[in-house]
Specification:
Blueprint (H helix, E strand, L loop, with lengths): L8 H12 L6 H17 L4 H28 L1 H8 L7 H17 L1 H30 L10 E7 L20 H10 L3 E9 L5 E5 L5 E8 L3 H5 L5 E2 L16 E4 L1 H8 L9 E4 L2 E8 L27 E4 L14 E6 L5 H10 L10 E6 H5 L4 H32 L1 H9 L4 H37 L13 H26 L6 H45 L10 E7 L8 H16 L4 E7 L9 E9 L2 E12 L3 H5 L3 E4 L13 E5 H7 L9 E4 L2 E9 L14 E5 L9 E8 L3 H15 L9 E2 H8 L1 H35 L1 H9 L4 H30 L15 H24 L6 H6 L2
Parallel strand pairs: 4-9, 6-8, 15-20, 17-19
Antiparallel strand pairs: 1-10, 1-11, 2-4, 2-10, 3-4, 3-7, 5-8, 6-9, 7-8, 12-21, 12-22, 13-21, 14-15, 14-18, 16-19, 17-20, 18-19
């Protein structure tokens, strides 16, 4: 005889489960069940998944069987023992009987099944699709080793907080090399500190020599960066210590991202040792990083409210030390560190603060932020609100299905009474009804998964740029989420109708009447909840739509129609000198002007949308005191303002006479003029900016630099020929007279005919650029409006069903009223009262909830109050109209009743 300890661990766990469940088995029966389980376990052999599946099924079956047949087994122990010694786990036959009966019952009611599964599928599908996005962007761990220990180190200057043009940067200042070396060599709370920065001054290198020139994101990294993050190359190696030494010339080696390896080099394994040209400098490829490696930076741009989203993809990495070494001054390094075991971020921050070396800006403090928070900066709130909206839609679908279940339970009241009279206990009937609702939930989950799978790609197509987009998709986590939601929904929705219809506190004669009354009350409550939730979604959708409408009606300050853009960098200094770059751009403009269909061409160092330009100090004298601010800086061709059609308010435009030898000439925007010269004309006055003295020759209108929904940025414009700024790249603005898809390729070919190795970004129209800049607002408005429409349809179906059932139940009464001379409008009004009463209650509750919830989305709205009365009034009118139509259709049928047919019915 084998002892208890000799049993497999699955059998011991199963025995503990039998003792722990509320419906405990007797000692003898428990032993027989465990023996039977061991026999079945032995048949599974060593197949781990088969043994685990048997354990889970047996545990669920024990609870299920104990709930329904405990009383029977207590009265008939011998029969139960014979069943236990049979070849099946106890209760399995009963469970399969319930499932088969539920399938037959649902198949006999195709309309009810289709409506219930369809409503649940829509709700679960919308929620699952949004969950897949939230899960991919916010919830999944970073694909690094122990990602929770990774932190990003920045400096913060609290004195900048609240200052115009500095407030957005105050808490994300990059680190000096001297401080990086101090942290790396002396910090005990950090097990590793690594640094990286943009290469070639602007983070872009032009890959030439193989095919079409292409601008790639190129970053420099310290030798320990990939080790600190916990990433190993899938091919080759990363950097060696001697390749990033600050002394001497760093070795010219490069590591490719997986994406550029696949796209540019076709995933060839012989790419190691291959030499590529970046800005005409040769680099030898030594490794390839794994798929999906991302390392975002530039936090003030990496948010949905910024013009450009940094997705973290760095296509080529080169050693830190190439070009500018670690001995340079200034704040330009971004640091990633790994906390030592058992160290909290606060402890590490205190030590890092103490290690800041002399010469730092006064008041500068260290700031340690979890790396995952940096990657998802600014996306938590918008995505959470959209997921909440999807959850509200799910609740509306649930209330719709609950109404259907309550109605069906009322219709099956007589059937359940017969079963009860034949000996079925209440637990058995509850289990029968719960099996049906659980089956509906699983079917709804299956349909929801299909809906989510179909909707995910279209959602991503219209969604704004987001980080970690490669993590979004229907995976095992999403499938488990959808299945769990379906099962929980089915069980929760089935509990109330099951308990209601199996209530045995009243006698059989009164039970039907009490159930009918309670059923009508429950259905009315369900409809009220449905309408309330729908009103909340309608108000939210109305606010987002009105906000987006306001944004799109904003005047950008220039004429975007028939305007296109092309961005191109200057050839590297290995080919032409900095003095020759102005000539290069002049030649590019000349050749572009000769293309048929081009009305005008100009260029500038930065264009509006996405507004990733630069700020420069701007100083003037006011009342004998120097006033210095940071303003938006644009170096442009003299024809730029005219090509953009920015209105000239006073003075003159820039001209070809504003050459390098002429005095510095400047245009200022209206808001900048009002800021520095509020009570006088700025024409002829002088200002110092970008290290030079300038004379204001004209005042132009304000334009939106970053996005339509952002504030106007005061700006000043200077001629490219007079600026001392290094012109690494410019953007051409082309005013067209014909189809952009035909003219722009010709412009690009004309430039390549002059400079075949110059990279030119994909041309785009200014209208398209503006549309992309507002993608996040468009996405929210469209998605919320879609949710609101679906919710309105579900609410209308629910009101229709309640009114129709009420009218059907009162058909005999209506026949009598018609026979006694009642008119049609009076009967319609009588039926409408019953259908609309619950809708009006829901409307009041919904408006109250919307009034409170609207404050949660106030920060996402543009030029509209969160409690905008017009939006609330519109949602109210729309809700009342939908409810009235849904209730009127079945009420109208009352007038079609033939009194004779109704009165002669038995």
């Amino acid at each position: 005889m084998r002892g208890k300890d000799d049993r497999p661990w699955e059998a011991r766990l199963f025995r503990l489960w039998l003792r722990a469940i509320p419906t405990r088995f007797g000692a003898g029966l428990e032993e027989d069940i465990v023996v039977l389980f061991e026999n079945r376990l032995r048949e599974c052999g060593r197949h781990r998944y088969a043994r685990m599946s048997l354990l889970l099924i047996s545990m669920v079956d024990a609870v299920w069987h104990g709930l329904g047949t405990w009383n029977d087994r207590r009265r008939e122990p011998r029969a139960t023992k014979r069943s236990v010694r049979s070849n099946r786990v106890p209760g399995l036959e009963s469970v399969w009987h319930d499932i088969r009966f539920a399938v037959r019952t649902l198949r006999k009611r195709p309309l009810f099944t289709a409506l219930a599964v369809g409503a649940m599928g829509l709700g679960i599908g919308g929620t699952t699709a949004m969950f897949s996005i939230v899960d991919g962007v916010l919830l999944k761990d970073l694909p690094y080793h122990d990602p929770e220990q990774l932190v990003t180190i920045w400096m913060a200057n609290p004195s900048w907080r609240g200052q115009e043009n500095l407030d957005r940067f105050w808490d994300a200042i990059e680190v000096r090399p001297v401080d990086y070396l101090s942290f790396r060599d002396h910090a005990k709370t950090l097990s590793s500190v690594a640094a990286f920065q943009e290469a070639f001054d602007d983070g872009e290198g032009v890959l030439t020599g193989e095919g079409v020139p292409e601008a790639l994101s190129v970053y420099q990294a310290s030798a320990n960066l990939f080790e600190t993050i916990g990433v190993q190359p899938i091919l080759g190696r990363t950097f060696l210590t001697e390749e990033v030494a600050p002394e001497g010339d760093a070795a010219r080696v490069a590591v490719l991202s997986f994406e550029i390896w696949k796209r540019r080099f076709d995933g060839r394994r012989d790419v190691l040792g291959h030499t590529v040209l970046l800005n005409d400098i040769p680099y030898q490829i030594v490794g390839v990083l794994p798929k999906g490696f991302r390392l975002p930076s530039d936090p003030y741009n990496n948010s949905p409210n910024a013009g450009a989203i940094d997705d973290g993809l760095r296509e080529i990495w080169i050693p830190l030390g190439e070009g500018c070494g670690l001995d340079c001054g200034g704040h330009y390094l971004e640091l990633v560190a790994r906390l030592a075991p058992g160290v909290s971020p606060d402890q590490a921050r205190a030590e890092v603060q103490a290690l800041i070396t002399e010469g730092a800006i006064e008041g500068l403090v260290a700031r340690l932020v979890p790396t995952k928070q940096i990657i998802t900066n600014g996306f938590g709130s918008p995505l959470s609100i959209l997921l909440g909206a999807a959850a509200v839609l799910m609740l509306i679908a649930c209330t719709n299905v609950a109404g259907l279940l309550v109605g069906e339970a009322a219709r099956r009241g007589r059937e359940l009474m017969v079963r009860s009279a034949l000996g079925a206990c209440r637990a058995r009937l509850v289990r029968l009804l719960l099996t049906e609702s659980l089956l509906l939930g699983l079917m709804g989950a299956g349909l929801g998964i299909v809906v989510a799978w179909l909707c995910t790609d279209p959602l991503l197509a219209i969604a704004p740029a987001m980080p970690r987009v490669e993590e979004i998709g229907i995976d095992v986590r999403v499938l488990i989420f959808a299945t769990a939601v379906g099962m929980c929904t089915g069980l929760l929705l089935g509990v109330v109708p099951a308990l209601l219809q199996t209530n045995d506190t009243v006698g059989p004669t009164l039970r039907l009447h009490s159930r009918a009354g309670s059923t009508r009350s429950l259905q009315s409550a369900v409809v009220s909840a449905q309408v309330a939730l729908t009103v909340v979604l309608l108000v939210a959708a109305g606010l987002f739509v009105r906000s987006f409408t306001r944004i799109m009606s904003v005047d950008p300050g220039f004429d975007p129609e028939e305007l296109a853009t092309l961005t191109l960098p200057a050839p590297p200094v290995t080919r032409i000198s900095p003095q020759q770059r102005a000539l290069f751009f002049h030649e590019v403009l000349d050749v572009a002007r000769e293309v048929p269909g081009v009305d005008a061409v100009s260029c500038a160092t930065t264009l509006p949308f996405p507004g990733d330009g630069t700020y420069h100090s701007f100083g003037t004298l006011r009342n004998g005191e120097q006033v210095v601010t940071n303003e938006w800086f644009v170096a442009a061709d003299p024809t730029y303002v005219e090509t953009m059609r920015i209105p000239l308010l006073r003075g003159r435009l820039l001209s070809e006479g504003d050459s390098r030898e002429a005095p510095g000439a400047m245009l200022v925007s209206q808001s900048l003029a009002q800021r520095h010269w509020p009570n006088e004309s700025p024409l002829g006055l002088r200002a110092r900016a970008n290290g030079m003295d300038w004379t204001v020759v004209g005042v132009v209108g304000d334009i939106r630099q970053e996005a339509l929904g952002t504030e106007v940025q005061p700006a000043f414009y200077v001629p490219i020929a007079q600026t001392n700024t290094s012109l690494r790249e410019v953007t051409l603005v082309v005013r067209l007279s014909s189809d952009p898809s035909v003219v722009l390729p010709k412009v690009r070919d004309a430039i390549w005919s002059l400079y075949p190795d110059v990279y030119i970004a994909e041309p785009n129209t200014m209208v398209g650029v503006m549309r992309d800049s507002e993608a996040d607002d468009r996405f929210r408005a469209l998605l919320m409006w879609t949710f609101a429409v679906i919710a309105g349809v579900l609410a209308a179906v629910g009101i229709f069903g309640v009114t129709a059932r009420g009218a059907s139940a009162r058909a005999h009464e209506m026949g009598i009223r018609l026979a006694l001379g009642a008119d049609g409008p009076g009967l319609i009004l009588l039926v409408l009262k019953e259908g609309l009463l619950s809708a009006i209650i829901g409307l009041v509750l919904g408006l109250t909830a919307a009034f409170w919830a609207s404050g949660l989305i106030a920060h996402l709205l543009f030029e509209i109050e969160a409690r905008d009365p017009w939006t609330f009034a519109g949602a109210t009118i729309l809700s009342v109209t939908v409810c009235a139509i849904a209730a009127y259709i079945p009420a109208r049928r009352v007038t079609k009743i033939d009194p004779i047919e109704v009165l002669v019915e038995p």
